[in-house]
Structure formats: C-alpha cells, structure tokens
C-alpha cells in the first residue's frame, strides 16, 4: 500500500500535467505514492502524451465532462494509498511538501486534512485567499466600497478564532490531503457541484471529523486557470463574479446555511439590478450625458443575475444534478 494516492483531474491540460508530475517526482522523497489521473472527456491525446513519460500512471476516463467533484470522487474510489491528495493539474511542487503533509496526518490523528500555501508563478505568496467561510460570504455582498462597509459586514459575519494559527475552516481543492478513513466518515465531494465551491462545502464536512490545517511551512505554485479561460472576464465592483463560480457558491450557501441565507443573497442581487442602472444613469445626467450611455457594466451584471436565476428553483429545493452553467 503506498503512503499517498495523488489524484489529478485532466481536461485538455496534458502539458500542465507533465510539468506537475515532473515536479512531484523531482521533489518527493521518503514516501511511496501512486498517480491517478481522471480525464473529463478531453477528446485529445492527453493520455498518450502523459503515458509516454509516466507509464505507471493509473488513468481513468469519466466518459463525459463531469467537473471537479465527480472526477475526484472516481479517483478516490480507485485510490489504494493510506492518504489521498487532490492536486490540480496547474500546480508545481517546489520541495518535499508531500512527505511533510503525510507526516502531519500520521502524527496528529485529530487532524482531518492538511493543505499548503499557494504561490504565484513568480514564487510570491498569493494574497487574499479565503480560509474561513465568512470571508467568502462577505465577498458575496455588493455594498458601497469603503472601510465602513467592510467593518459592518465583518460584524455581521465574523470569523472564528482558533488557538492554532494554522487552523482554517476549509482548504483549497487545488492541494488538499486527507485520509480515506476520514472521507469514509465525511462523505466524498458533493457531486452536484460542477466546478468551484465543492471544496468549501467539503471543508465543512471534513471539519466535523477533525481540525483542518494550512501548514505554515508548506507551499506550492498554483498557476491557476489551467483548463479555463479567465481572460474574458473583466472584474469590476459589481461584476466581481464569474457565472460558474457564483452559481456553485450560491449552491454551497444553500446547502450549508439554508434557504434563508440563499434567498437573502438572491434578493440582494435582484434588488441591485435597478439600483446600479439608476445610479449610472444619474451619474450620466450629472455629467450632461445621455442617461443610456456606458451601461455595459450594468447590463453584464443583469445578465449574471439572470444566470443565477436559472438555477433558483433547483437550488431552493436542493435538487440533485449537475449545476453546470
């Protein structure tokens, strides 16, 4: 039995996986491991490219683009290691972090899962990554920019305080190590999630089995957006969400906090649509312009809210099925 099963989901990213695996083999020592790759119907030569260099990889085909949760669950089902690591294809290891994580799980049975700090491609620490549930929930509310709004939200949705500064409420699915025995108790990833949000929801259930630690001496490079195009989304104060991400996050809010919390967010977005249009029109009139000029940002926000609305009844009743935009 290997010490660790490393599960990587592939969707048309063979080059990234080759670089990722090269970093795993270069930097990992002192433990035994297996590599499991689950392919989400890439319909390319990903398997041939990877297997040409790493013939011992265990490769599984989903048969359709199942998203992150379902593909990882299949990998977990086939894992034979004492521990399991979810690892994104667009990641690179820079030292023997896997052995350190295995050691923590071996030596601290009260720890349910461990993760590592994310670095950018330039090696700098990625800032402002959420580690508590309420950090993320606060970002869902679109209020006037400024410290006053931030302070008010922090009072309404405060963060927990832990004795151990390394303890967090959830860990990024880009690098998350746990035990099969812990998964057996907590359950696998929720397969209603297509992409995003599934690791947050899983963190809630994993956290019931023990502490979740973001290890201070553990780091990895996360290139990000390996199998998705983020370049087309221009972030503004009101258009801060990508549709798939927020549909998934709204599903998480419904599952973890109930119908009321979900309805509050949806009402917030719906009521904001006329507000952002009226606000921009008033600014245009003040500047002696046509009120109907430069409303692209507002129209985009209205379209986003419309996408959220397509999943409204399904989310309200927490129906099973793939929440894919």
UniProtKB/TrEMBL annotation:
Q: Does the keyword rRNA-binding apply?
A: no
Q: Locate the transmembrane regions by residue number.
A: 259-279
Looking at the record, the residues that make up the Glycosyltransferase 2-like domain are 5-132
Which InterPro entries does its entry note?
A: Glyco_trans_2-like (IPR001173), Nucleotide-diphossugar_trans (IPR029044)
Identify the domain of life.
Answer: Bacteria
Task: Quote the Pfam families the UniProt record gives.
Answer: Glycos_transf_2
- Protein keywords: Membrane, Transferase, Transmembrane, Transmembrane helix
Supply the SUPFAM superfamilies for this chain. Nucleotide-diphospho-sugar transferases
Q: What would you give as a GO molecular function for this chain, any one?
A: transferase activity
PANTHER family associated with the record: RHAMNOSYLTRANSFERASE WBBL
Q: What is this protein called?
A: Glycosyltransferase family 2 protein
């Amino acid at each position: 039995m290997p010490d660790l099963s490393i599960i990587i989901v592939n969707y048309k990213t063979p080059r990234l996986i080759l670089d990722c695996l090269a970093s795993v083999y270069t930097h990992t020592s002192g433990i035994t491991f297996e590599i499991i790759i689950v392919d989400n119907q890439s319909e390319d030569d990903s398997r041939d490219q990877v297997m040409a260099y790493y013939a011992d990889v265990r490769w599984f085909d989903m048969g359709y683009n199942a998203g992150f949760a379902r593909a990882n669950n299949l990998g977990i089902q086939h894992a034979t290691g004492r521990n399991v690591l979810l690892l994104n294809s667009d990641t690179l290891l820079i030292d023997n972090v896997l052995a350190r994580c295995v050691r923590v799980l071996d030596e601290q049975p009260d720890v349910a899962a461990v993760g590592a700090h994310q670095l950018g491609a330039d090696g700098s620490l990625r800032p402002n990554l959420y580690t508590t549930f309420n950090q993320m929930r606060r970002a869902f509310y679109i209020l006037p920019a400024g410290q006053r709004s931030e302070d008010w939200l922090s009072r309404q949705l405060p963060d927990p305080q832990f004795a151990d500064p390394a303890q967090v409420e959830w860990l990024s699915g880009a690098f998350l190590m746990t035990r099969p025995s812990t998964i057996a108790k907590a359950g696998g990833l929720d397969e209603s999630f297509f992409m995003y949000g599934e690791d947050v929801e899983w963190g809630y259930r994993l956290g019931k089995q023990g502490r979740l630690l973001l290890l201070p001496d553990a780091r990895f490079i996360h290139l990000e957006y390996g199998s998705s195009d983020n370049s087309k989304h221009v972030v503004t104060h009101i258009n801060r969400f990508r549709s798939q991400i927020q549909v998934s996050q709204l599903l998480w809010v419904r599952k973890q906090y109930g119908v009321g919390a979900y309805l509050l967010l949806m009402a917030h977005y719906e009521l904001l649509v006329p507000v952002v249009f009226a606000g921009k029109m008033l600014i245009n009139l003040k500047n002696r312009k046509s009120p109907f000029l430069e409303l692209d940002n507002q129209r985009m926000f209205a379209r986003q809210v419309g996408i959220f609305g397509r999943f409204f009844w399904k989310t309200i009743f927490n129906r099973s099925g793939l929440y894919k935009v």
